[in-house]
Amino acid sequence: GNREVNLEATDAWIYDHLNKPHDWKVGIGSAEQKMLWWWCDALFMAPPVLVNYSNLKKDSHYLDEMHKYYMQTYEYLFDKDEKLFYRDNRFFIKGDPSDKLERNGKKVFWSRGNGWVLAGLALILDDMPKNYVHRPFYENLFKTMSARILALQPSDGLWRTSLLDPDSFIHGEASGSGFHTFALAWGINQGILSKENYLPSVLKAWTALEKCQQENGMIGWVQAIGFDPKPADKDSWFNFGTGAFLLAGSEMLKMKL
């Protein structure tokens, strides 16, 4: 018969994640870690799990905790003018030696970092109860970022690793593009994004992503583990790039073209 999964380890981990004493909670520690999710990739890693866990436990406390920490990160890392997330505070703290701009003078917004956030929003909304009081915030953020990502898509379909300085890179990058494609396709499939406005972009992106796959199945053009825009090549492979490709493909399969 069906056995229930033993959630003891998960329970302990989530309790620890939300409640463990941290230096930053009492105002001590590096400038970087002023909050639980101080880098934008974390918005893919933790919030969807907490939404799922809240449903499993039938306890909205976990949703509220997720929202509290999400808002801290949003208020800190989201640039309301550019409608994109900084990867972390290295990219906007003035006077910091690592403070920098792209070669064209634009701010540094990393494609995969924003892909983590946008794909994470799709996963959050997929499981978040329709009547949750803060759901409109996540829907609005998803729509706002989707429109920005749509507007920044290069003509060949693949986003470059630097969203605001695409000319620095000769080729698109598959992991960020995979996450963007997944999220936009999910939005169409859910009726949150307009098919008329978004479908041409999604089809163009998916066609370009398919060309990143080699004959042996390997997905190339994936930027290495990092935190800022760097080049990739046809043979650069990392498991998260394949994961992004599979997420995008799964939504393409669901799409009624």
Entry keywords:
9 helices, 257 residues, two-stranded antiparallel sheet, mainly alpha, globular, 2% strand
End-to-end gap: 40 Å
Average pLDDT, rounded to a whole number, is 94
What is the H/E string?
HHHHEEHHHHH
- Rg, rounded, reads 19 Å
Helix content: 40-55%
Strand content is: under 5%
Number of strands: 2
Strand order of the largest sheet: 1-2
Please work out how many helical segments DSSP would assign.
Answer: 9
Q: What general outline do the C-alpha atoms trace? A: globular
Classification by helices and strands: mainly alpha
Main β-sheet, in a few words?
2 strands, antiparallel
- Low-confidence runs: none
Could you explain how this protein is built, in words?
The chain is an all-alpha fold and 257 residues long. The protein has helices spanning 8-19, 42-45, 47-57, 61-77, 111-127, 135-151, 174-189, 195-210, 239-254, and strands at residues 78-79, 84-85. Strands 1-2 form a two-stranded antiparallel sheet. Helix 7 (174-189) packs antiparallel against helix 8 (195-210). The longest helix has 17 residues, at 61-77.
Short description:
The chain has helices at 8-19, 42-45, 47-57, 61-77, 111-127, 135-151, 174-189, 195-210, 239-254; strands at 78-79, 84-85.
Topology:
Elements: H1 8-19, H2 42-45, H3 47-57, H4 61-77, E1 78-79, E2 84-85, H5 111-127, H6 135-151, H7 174-189, H8 195-210, H9 239-254
Antiparallel strand pairs: 1-2
Helix pairs in contact: 3-4, 3-5, 5-6, 5-7, 7-8, 7-9
